[in-house]
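Help needed: design a sequence for this.
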């Protein structure tokens, strides 16, 4: 018999390793948690501090929110871009002003955006 450690809140890899080192098998399931760090354990089954035979399975539900689509803000005004991004859970990041004459873009309009895949609140450069 062994005691299952409470590993909720830990990064999934660390949590799994701790349980494996204690003699338990580990399985992972995906879940979503608003306040938890991505990749951290949201819950476990059985719960921590449970006595059970060594070699039994402990399932860890890991925070793995879905990928997000960043709204297209090209050709929008800066103010409209801020609104669109905020409504989608993002924020406007670094803005670089350039001459839009070569692209025939009216002054004050966004001609390109750059973002990396991330979870909100993430910044989008324009």
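Sure. Designed sequence:
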């Amino acid at each position: 018999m062994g005691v299952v450690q409470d590993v909720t809140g830990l990064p999934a890899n660390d949590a799994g390793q701790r349980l494996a080192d204690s003699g338990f098998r580990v399985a992972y399931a995906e879940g979503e948690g608003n306040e938890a760090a991505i990749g951290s354990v949201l819950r476990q089954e059985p719960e921590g501090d449970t006595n059970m035979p060594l070699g039994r399975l402990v399932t860890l539900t890991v925070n793995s929110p879905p990928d997000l689509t960043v709204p297209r803000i090209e050709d929008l005004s800066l103010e409209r871009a801020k609104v669109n991004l905020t409504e989608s859970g993002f924020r406007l990041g670094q803005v670089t002003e350039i001459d839009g004459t070569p692209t025939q873009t009216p002054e004050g309009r966004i001609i390109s955006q750059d973002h990396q895949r991330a979870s909100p609140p993430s910044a989008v450069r324009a």
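The longest helix spans residues 12-21.
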